[in-house]
Specification:
transit peptide; single chain; 9-stranded mixed beta sheet; protein biosynthesis; alpha+beta; mitochondrion; aa-tRNA-synth_II/BPL/LPL
Length: about 475
């Protein structure tokens, strides 16, 4: 169950955490594909990825900039911050089986339908997700593999993978990031063992320098599932909370004794996720602010039923590895995770959380782009979400889809790649007489490793302008 949270990340200082040698990771294959190479290309009619051809249709919307990064697997790269954090979590849950899916490509059914996403969920839209065609897509969360993993008969597992979402452009958002999902389920005949397990966990946590704020309660907005025994559901929830409080202290507790004995503060908040109930978000008080860490809850029984394990119940959680890494390693820009500069990679060692030292800060180059939006298309607003939007259907080739910022950012990122640091809306104006709408965006170009010349930035800006005019139907001001 991958958390849907997207907090702004603050840099923080950190110390050392150790992690023993990683255990073997189980690779799970969801459908046949060739994984010997990481080649991917796009032709006018199809995508060819690792030797498998995916015919294009009206859903297809994956640019070359995304295809080029498939199978980079930062979460498996030795001594990379994403991998270091993954291994620390795996070490903490040492009895859980670590899993890595064999491909980022999943069916639309796996990504949405099996998990109970409604047909009109905005996550299905072409503006939010990457589609190969109407049947296959790049996973938007690790939960796309949840049912498949349960079907394999695994009761305790941790799954890490790269996920893909069309998003805004700034220092903490990137179209590719990494999630980690964990779950623990029991046969219903074994649920009577939970009180003893919870007693042991609670005793262990009582020795931590941690202050846990938890005013959540079961209610109509966050209920136990009707077919669960309330006593068992309560024990599953307790085990979830004890397990994650322990993990959070493992990640952040190294600071608890560095400030005159002040405890680590953790806060539990009621939440909603389509795959769990009751559901929660967890925050930690860090550098003077509450930071969102993860989402979790008791697994929806219908998910387990669909997986063929109706006789089991349990909990699941999901967290973003970039989010935590940026905080724990004090990494100020999410693009740094993708750099090949040794000045970045040489600062990290397997099993250790160390503070990143910025090796350069080259000046930004700002360029503004102001334009009129195209006239409204004949599509109704309801067509822009859910299954209809995912199909990208428009009434005729002459009618442009309504403007969406994610579409604009996608073109900018496809042209400029990691040279674009942020795209910020600085003006939104509607003409009082013509009712035409205008927007002005400030594009901030900055190379992580060298100065950019004004000429090369102007060239990128001109290409962006030509593409947004041609592909989005806007009119430059």
């Amino acid at each position: 169950m991958a958390s849907g949270l997207a907090p702004r990340l603050l840099a923080s200082s950190s110390r050392f955490l150790s992690c023993p040698k990683a255990r073997p990771i189980v690779s799970i294959r969801l459908f046949t594909s060739t994984r010997a190479s990481s080649s991917a290309q796009s032709t006018p009619d199809s995508y060819i990825i690792n030797g498998v051809t995916y015919p294009k249709d009206t859903y297809s919307n994956i640019p070359s900039s995304i295809l080029d990064k498939l199978d980079r697997n930062l979460h498996l790269k030795p001594s990379h911050p994403i991998s270091i954090l993954r291994q620390i979590v795996e070490d903490h849950f040492s009895s859980y089986t670590p899993l890595v899916p064999s491909s980022a490509i999943v069916s639309v059914d796996q990504n949405f339908d099996e998990l109970g996403f409604p047909p009109d969920h905005p996550g299905r839209s072409l503006t939010d997700s990457y589609y190969l065609n109407n049947e296959y897509m790049l996973r938007t969360h690790t939960s796309a593999h949840e049912v498949e993993s349960y079907r394999k008969g695994l009761d305790k597992w941790l799954l890490s993978a790269d996920v893909y979402r069309r998003d805004e452009i700034d220092s903490s958002h990137y179209p590719i990031f990494h999630q980690m999902e964990g779950t623990h389920i029991w046969s219903n005949s074994d649920l009577h063992l939970l009180p003893k397990l919870n007693e042991e966990l609670e005793k262990k946590i009582s020795n931590y320098n941690i202050a846990i704020e938890d005013e959540t309660f079961i209610s109509s907005s966050n209920p136990f599932q009707s077919h669960h025994d309330p006593i068992h559901a309560e024990q599953i929830t307790k085990h979830l909370k004890h397990s994650l409080n322990s993990l959070i202290f493992r990640l952040f507790g190294h600071q608890a004794n560095q400030k005159g004995g002040e405890p680590l503060k953790v806060r539990w908040i009621e939440a909603y996720f389509p795959f769990t109930t009751p559901s929660y978000e967890v925050e930690v008080f860090w550098q003077g602010e509450w930071l969102e860490l993860l989402g979790c809850g008791v697994v929806m029984q219908k998910t387990l039923d669909q997986s063929g394990v109706s006789d089991k119940s349990g909990w699941a959680f999901g967290l973003g590895l970039e989010r935590l890494s940026m905080v724990l390693f004090s990494i100020p820009d999410i693009r740094l995770f993708w750099t090949s500069d040794p000045r970045f990679s040489s600062q990290f060692k397997q099993g250790q959380i160390t503070t990143f030292n910025s090796y350069s800060k080259y000046p930004p180059c700002y360029k503004d782009m102001s334009f009129w939006l195209p006239p409204a298309s004949t599509n109704s607003s309801s067509d822009q979400h859910g299954a209809s939007a995912a199909g990208g259907k428009i009434s005729s080739p002459t009618h442009m889809k309504p403007f969406h910022e994610n579409d604009y950012c996608e073109i900018v990122r496809d042209v400029a790649g990691d040279l674009i640091e942020s795209v910020t809306l600085i003006d939104d104006f509607t003409h009082p007489k013509t009712n035409r709408q205008s927007k002005c965006y400030r594009l901030n170009y900055r190379h992580m490793d060298r100065n950019l010349s004004n000429d090369e930035v102007n060239e990128l800006q001109n290409i962006v302008q030509k593409r947004v005019v041609g592909e989005m139907g806007i009119e430059m001001r």
